[in-house]
Every structure is written in structure tokens, then in C-alpha cells.
Specification:
Strands 6, 7, 8, 10, 11 and 14 form a six-stranded antiparallel sheet that branches. A four-stranded antiparallel sheet has the order 5-9-13-12, with no helix packed on it. Strands 1-2 form a two-stranded antiparallel sheet. The chain is globular, with a radius of gyration of 16 Å. It is mainly beta.
Length: 157
């Protein structure tokens, strides 16, 4: 667990951020902490390289998610982070991978959005981008393809 305020830091906070209702929201990929609580671990999350001869991926996949996490935006039905972690820090994601997340009870028509953070100084010239991605939700498992550690949103149609 990440700790702050003078306590021993067991791992470094690594946050993914977005803007909800005009307010910045950050979610720590390591401990799941955000302004309204904790994103718990998604048990059974998997990432499988799409390469015939995959690179030597270092670290372990960590996925954290939460149903209806943002009171500032009710259209977000689920939000999650995915990243590889090694020795208390984010590891480079080596290959484009198929990610599978067991998440029960999602609406079948939700759109998957990846948050691409603002570049540089977060100014008007470098705004955050919301990139729509293809995904499949079947038998309680959300599947999509990525090589990007990020905050992802499932948005109701």
C-alpha cells in the first residue's frame, strides 16, 4: 500500500488522472486510492501478448476497478486502471496484449474509453484526450487490446 504524510512509503504512488465535472481526479494504479475511496484489485485479470514470440515482460499485471466511481459523472458505469508493476514502480508494457478483466454486472452496451493525459503543462494547447476503444463484454469478462497503462472508463450509451 502507498502511504503519505510522513509515514514510510512502501511503494510510490503512480496516478492516472482525468477531469470529471470540471474537477481533476487521480487514481493510484498501485494502491487504488482516489478522492472518494479505493479502487479494489480486479482478481483474475490477465494480459496475453499478441506476438507469436512475446517479449520478456517484466513485472506483474495490476488491475484496479470500481463500479460508478465518480459522483461528478453518472455516465461512467465503471472505471479501472491497468499497468505492469515491478519493484514498487510501473514497468514498461512490452507488447500489444489482449487484456481480460472478470467484472460482473456491466451493461453490455457501455463504450470503453482510454484516458490519454494532457501533454506537458496541462494547458489548453495540450488537453486530455478520451480515446474510444473496441471491447467485448461476454460472460462477465471485459476483453480489449492495449499496450497502454492508463485509466479506462466504461461509459453508458
Amino acid at each position: 500500500m502507498c502511504t503519505e504524510d510522513g509515514e514510510a512509503l512502501t511503494v510510490k504512488h503512480y496516478t492516472f488522472s482525468t477531469t470529471m465535472g470540471g474537477k481533476s481526479v487521480s487514481v493510484c494504479a498501485m494502491c487504488g486510492q482516489y478522492r472518494e475511496g479505493i479502487f479494489p484489485l480486479i482478481e483474475g485479470a490477465q494480459a496475453v501478448s499478441q506476438k507469436a514470440k512475446p517479449s520478456n515482460q517484466r513485472g506483474s499485471l495490476i488491475a484496479r476497478g470500481l463500479e460508478k466511481p465518480f459522483s461528478d459523472d453518472e455516465t461512467v458505469v465503471y472505471a479501472f486502471t491497468v499497468a505492469y508493476v515491478q519493484n514498487g514502480a510501473l514497468a514498461t508494457w512490452k507488447d500489444v496484449s489482449t487484456v481480460s478483466l472478470p467484472i460482473a454486472g456491466l451493461p453490455g452496451n457501455a463504450r470503453l474509453i482510454r484516458i490519454s493525459p494532457a501533454a506537458g503543462d496541462d494547458s489548453v494547447q495540450n488537453p486530455e484526450q478520451r480515446i474510444e476503444m473496441e471491447s467485448v463484454y461476454q460472460d462477465g469478462v471485459l476483453t480489449f487490446t492495449t499496450k497502454t497503462p492508463a485509466l479506462y472508463l466504461l461509459v453508458a450509451e
